[in-house]
Every structure is written in C-alpha cells, then in structure tokens.
Specification:
By secondary structure, the chain is of the alpha/beta class. Helix 6 runs parallel beside helix 7. The two termini are about 30 Å apart.
Length: about 375
C-alpha cells in the first residue's frame, strides 16, 4: 500500500533520517511476499514485513544503521534463515535490503509519490556495490514502465525476459540490482450507496490496497472525514459514473432505492468489462432483478456474473460491519483470481537469476 511514503517525506523534510526496509527476495515460506516494505525511525515504524522475530531483527538492524550509517554506508543487505537464525516456524529464507534515506533521496521519493497520486506507475532500481565483484554507486533510478528505451539496463533485461518486475534482486554485470515496481492499486471499487452498510464497507476498504469511488446523490450521507483512498461523487446521475469508471472496475450496488439499483445493474451490464459486480439483497431480490433485466435484453450468461447475495459464503451475520468484512473478502478473492489469470496469460515467471554467495552474514553496499 506504500504507506511508508508519506511519513518518509515528512521526516526527511524536517531533517530526520529514516531507514526503508524492503523484503527483496523470499525462499520457501515467509510471513510476507517480496516487495513488502517497512519504514523505521528512531522511535517509530510504519508498515510491516511480517511481524515476529524477523521484524524484530529488522528493526534492530535498521536502528543500528540509523546510528552508524555514515560510517558503514547507506545500504545493507541481510539474508536471514527464519528457522535457524530466528526460530520462526515458517522455515523459509528472507533477504532484506535496508536503505538509509536522507535529504539526498527526496527527489526520487517526491517523484514516486507524485506519480502514484496521479495513478501512474514507476520502476525503481538501485544497484548495490560491495555485494559482488566491482564497485558501483548505489544511486536510485526511477522511470516509467513504458520508458524501456531510457530505463536502466537491468530493468530492461528483466522486462524483456517477461519477469514480474514487482520486486527482483538479480545479478547484472557483476553487481546486485534491485528492481521493483510501484503502481497505484489495481483494485478500483465503485460503491453506490452511503447508507449504514456502504459506510461500513468504506471503513474496511480504507485499510486495503484499493481505490474507491463512493457514489450517492444524498450529499449529507457522507461522513465529514474520508480515507485517503476514497473519492466521493455526490451526483444525481449515478448511471453516468458507471460509464466513466476505469476498465475492469469492481462495482458494489447497495443504494436506498430498488428502482435505482435496477438502473445501475442495467448500466453495469451494458459495459460488460467489470471485474466484479455485487448487488446487495436476498436470493428473492436476485430472482426478481434477473427477470426484469432479462426482459430488458440482458443475456443469461451476463446475469450469471452478478453476485447476489454478496459476501463470502458461510457468513450469516447481517450487521453492517459483518457484511462489510464478508464483501471485502469477496472483492479480494475476485481480484486475486483476476491477477492469477493475467499472470498465466502472460506466462510471467516469478523470479530471475539466482541469488548466490550469501550465508547469514550482512553485506554492506555503499
């Protein structure tokens, strides 16, 4: 979710260095996936790389780097066996990159933050010296994913090989190169209805890697405070919001009016490129809507793509908060299934080039 960006910008601007911890490679079972981040200051932390002894060790290493970074260099790389080294039952191996960030890093952090705010992706590359033979400055390069002509050679190699570039630590020209992709959340939810359930859903989605367009013509229904990933559209023409939504959006329809629900359903079926479409209601409501929508020309195979009742099966509670959790879980399920299908279609490989030559000792990169 890149929650480390805002505190990093604030602290560096006021002259306080911080350490960015990145889980750059995983082997076997680990608490988090490669690409997880944690930001560490001398008295606080943001985000998580999985908790437990791994995170405790990372915090200790980061705060040591905060104290002695000027003497040892701005980066260090650690390969930690979770079982032998840390006593965690996961049993895998986690490779961590720790980067001491200061005012010299502001340009690329500010550019990254601005790009993500504008829903644009960026690829970051840092070349690490001291890890293998040779010496290369550990500067950060930042570029757009489609700018392959001007991008760093290691990133171009990874993209050409068809590798998922979300986070890769690879050998290139005798050096270790971290290449990772930062992009706005791929899950975009268009939520119609600002009643009790809609408000509960927004509170849950505020904690997840997604963006939300929240629609209701009743402006007074929206709370005074909105999460950073939520944008309100108080409109008298909600069907137009359906047409304007980005491709592959996920739609949730839970308004105060059945007639409006039906019009929204019709509009969603007309665009037919949604990633998920959920309609709040009972099985009886579904049958009535299916008959009415079929009479208006919606094909049977399209009607099968509508989820109603909504929420993961097996959760029977009807309190708004319970519905919200069940719906959020279903949205995540549908999103993961779509990402998996895309990966299979592109034949993406999960890794490139082995990481070799490390034991449990740390390696400094300057």
């Amino acid at each position: 979710m890149n929650a480390w960006l805002e505190p990093a910008l604030h602290l560096i601007r006021v002259g306080r260095p911080v350490v960015l911890v990145t889980l750059v490679r995983t082997e076997g079972s680990t608490p988090r996936e490669a690409g997880a981040h944690m930001l560490v200051a001398d008295d606080a932390q943001w985000d998580t790389i999985g908790g437990g002894h791994l995170e405790w060790r990372a915090l200790a290493l980061a705060r040591t780097l905060l104290k002695v970074g000027a003497d040892t260099g701005p980066c260090r790389l650690d390969r930690l066996a979770l079982g032998p080294s840390l006593g965690q039952c996961c049993g895998g191996v986690a490779t961590l990159l720790l980067e001491l960030l200061s005012v010299s890093d502001l340009p690329w952090i500010e550019e990254l933050d601005a790009a993500l705010q504008n829903r644009s992706a960026r690829i970051r590359q840092r070349t690490l010296s001291g890890a293998l033979k040779g010496s290369v400055a550990g500067a950060v390069s930042l570029f757009a994913p489609d700018d392959t002509g001007r991008g760093p050679a290691a990133a171009r190699m990874i993209q050409t090989a068809g590798v998922d570039v979300r986070c890769n630590l690879s050998e290139h020209d005798g050096h270790l190169v971290l290449t990772e992709k930062f992009e706005p959340p791929a899950l975009h939810v268009v939520l119609f209805g600002a009643g009790h359930v809609g408000q509960a859903v927004v509170r849950v989605l505020a904690t997840l890697p997604c963006t939300v367009t929240w629609v209701d013509e009743r402006d007074a229904q929206f709370p005074g405070y909105l999460p950073g990933n939520v944008a309100v559209d108080a409109t008298d023409a909600p069907e137009a919001v359906v047409a304007q939504a980005p491709p592959h959006s996920s739609f949730l329809v839970m308004t105060h009016c059945h007639a409006l629900d039906q019009r929204l359903c019709q509009a969603i079926f007309e665009r037919d490129d949604f990633a998920y479409f959920g309609l709040i209601g009972s099985r009886t409501k579904r049958r009535k809507f299916e008959r009415r929508l079929a009479a208006r020309g919606v094909a049977e195979h399209s009607l099968e793509r509508m989820t109603c009742p909504i929420g993961v099966p097996g959760i029977r509670g009807k309190a708004p908060e319970i519905i919200a959790v069940a719906v959020a879980a279903q949205l995540l399920q549908a999103h993961e299934q779509r990402l998996s299908a895309q990966g299979r279609a592109r034949n993406i490989k999960p890794e490139i080039l082995r990481l070799s030559g490390y034991e449990d000792e740390l390696v400094y990169a300057d």
